[in-house]
Amino acid sequence: MPTFAYSVRIFPLFFIKKTGVNQRQLFLQHVAQTSEAPLALEIVKASGSTLWDVNGKSYIDLIAGISVCNIGHCHPEVTAAIKNQADQYLHLLVYGELVETPQVAYAHYLTQHLPATLNSVYFTNSGAEAVEGAMKLCKRYRNKTQIIAFNQSYHGSTQGALSIIGDEYWRNAYRPLLPGILHLDYNSFDDLRYITTDTACVIAETVQAERGVIAPTLAWMQALRKKCSETGCLLVLDEIQTGFGRTGSLWGFEQLNVIPDIVLMGKALGGGMPLGAFIADRKLMQSFTNNPVLGHITTFGGHPVSCAAGLATMKVLQEGHLVSEVNIKAGIFLSLLKHPRIKAVRSAGLLIAVEFESYETNKAVIDRCIANGVLTDWFLFAPQCMRIAPPLNISDDAIFKACAIILDAIETI
After folding, report:
1. Which is nearest to 160 in space by CA: 216, 122, 200, 114?
2. Which of 94, 130, 207, 301 sits most deeply, having the most CB atoms within 10 A of its CB?
3. pLDDT digit string (tens) for 192-220?
4. Longest dimension (CA), the chain
5. What is the CATH number of domain 76-319?
6. What's the pTM value of the predicted model, to 2 decimals?
């Protein structure tokens, strides 16, 4: 297993005059690290699909904060919504008791763009917390403990979410994990037999993103929905990476002709602000109101500023027709990214995996891209694959330029 550490890059340092200590040193000393050699780019401005570092160098952003900034960085309507709400009030009380206009408005708007049975929104701080809340809700509603997930799935890094992700390399160091978790093979019809009346829920991604963009077959996803309905267990679909237009429709499950019992959201939900949610029918959510009361609580979930930003973002997404252009832009990437060293290119809209022969080759290409002004990275379960998931409003010119830099990087490594 590769170390997943980026090589340390040399670039001019920004010195704080009074202390003589540069920002990079302070970053390494005081901000917790999760790799041995973090990228450590000092970004000072972002707009649209472009980032600028402290030296004025620009980067085409091909990862959008890991599918967070779907309408680009610092969209004026989003920043205006944030400023307006900050002038009204910030935190008031633990989520779920006071009527806060941004929460109500965003919950209403979301449910107007979802199937009728997905009508009750529980806002959280992040996608991982949405996973945790949904797991609790399923166990409470079903009065069952078994949870089924899939190999090579990713649902977050908290203890419960970690228990259901489908890769032992990432789980092993944190055992013991939650009991009662069963992992099946994604797209396996035969494995559906393990779903029984003793199953509380099945949690699946609509596209396995961190596996390197592996989509389910239509027939398998519909068979999964049918099996859950037959056994009475709840189907939870994870739209944390695939939602908000990323795959070419507002929600990934729309392309699969299934309706989940619970849908998970995060990343782009807050328009760049921290926000997650799990959404279900109100009759399910009512399970949290008794035995025990306050069955799931969060201090900052549904923060009013995050909800205001998220609502503004979703309105831009809907009114700007960005979703309808996703597959057109994806098509440009697919037409240009052709090279003998590229083994495969897989796309679910603007969630694209470019596969090389090895992690080492991919890392060398990524490093060269960053040095030449294109920000990209790899996938957790597919380190041999380059991640391309830009803001949905990336311009055609930026796509052409980014692809030229990628192809040049492949040629020169």
Report:
1. 200
2. 130
3. 999 999 999 999 999 999 999 999 999 99
4. 68
5. 3.40.640.10
6. 0.93
